[in-house]
Amino acid sequence: MKINRKHIATAVIPIILAFIMAGCWDMVEIETNAFILGIGLDLSESEHGNDERIMVTYQIALPAEMMGSSGQGEGGGGGASTLNISIEAKNLMMAEQTLMATLNQVPNYTHLQVVLFGKELAEKGIANYIDFFFRDSRIRQRTKVAASKGKASEVFKVQPKTVKSTSQYISDLLDENEKRSLMVLMPMDFGIMQRHLIRGLDICLPSIMVKKDTLTVEGAGVFSGNKLVAWLTGSDVMSLKWLHGQPAKGIIDISSGKIKTGDFVFKITDNKVSVKPVLDGNRFIMKVKMDVEGDIGEIQNEKFNTYDIALIHQMEDLVKQKIMQSCSQLFNKLVNELKTDCIELGRRVENYYPDFWEKNKNRWKEYFVNSALEMEVEVKLRRVGVIK
Length: 388
Known about the structure:
By secondary structure, this protein is of the alpha/beta class. 35% of the residues lie in helices and 32% in strands. It is built from 14 helices and 15 strands. A hairpin with a 2-residue loop joins strand 9 (204-211) and strand 10 (214-224). Helix 10 (234-243) crosses helix 11 and helix 12 packs across helix 13 (354-360). It starts with a strand and ends in a 5-residue tail after the last strand.
């Protein structure tokens, strides 16, 4: 068992602190509960023959220390702090029992923010471990789920420069970046995850990376069934969100020597996306219609004429081509190469063709790999700005 203490300068769990100050919890409850903020799952590196084990990392709030002085350092009274405990076990139930014996406290999941699956464990399959989270009524369905491109335990070692815990920091990253960037996937939680897997649908999880002691969220892990099979880049995620029918704001970088403007950045200000499956003989066509509006965020040509209507139409066409090309490439990769329905075509078929789905859901992959994409995209460049 590995124990790693992390002290953060100021309040880390405002919700817990608010309850404490309001008197909603008495000291007995605080002392007898271990408030779990985050859980990371990795394959164990220890040799146990054919007995495969996992390493479960718990990030735990220490609310009693939150009420201390502002001192810092190991064993100090100060500020808020979290405790990371990594436990090797055969499964999550046994890991929890070891945690209880170690801390002499009962795990409390009411403030669980995120569960991370490490890369190696996700590649072998997560089915044996997500069952614990689906069955346990203590786990909130809104708890976020993500995949780490390395070990999940390493993610929890990163100390954010903000006042929050690593777990809360990841949760905030997933929420805020998804709203601001086309390259960050909509957060996945256990409720959505369970509904997808029960219906035999594939999932994508946002990916967390550690870069120079900093946490970043970009791209996604692609699952076929319960196994991680590939990683999507940030650009792939941009296309995936459109194929999901998700309108999003962000930027599109256009590199082209074909027109007088040269390279430019298109900033999306508004977009509407509709996705509809159409049964055509024995295959489904995924029809995507997009209306995109935006401004020129940057242009690499100081002589650009903002009144050249023909040139502006050329720029709109380049943006249109970029969107259609990127979506088509991702669609072909998921359908023909990975054979994983992360574009959620099956979910839409279930909604539009319920009788067909009920009859053929167990054979859905046969239909999925034979599906096609049709796109209709309209781009409007509203403001080109003034170049001095």
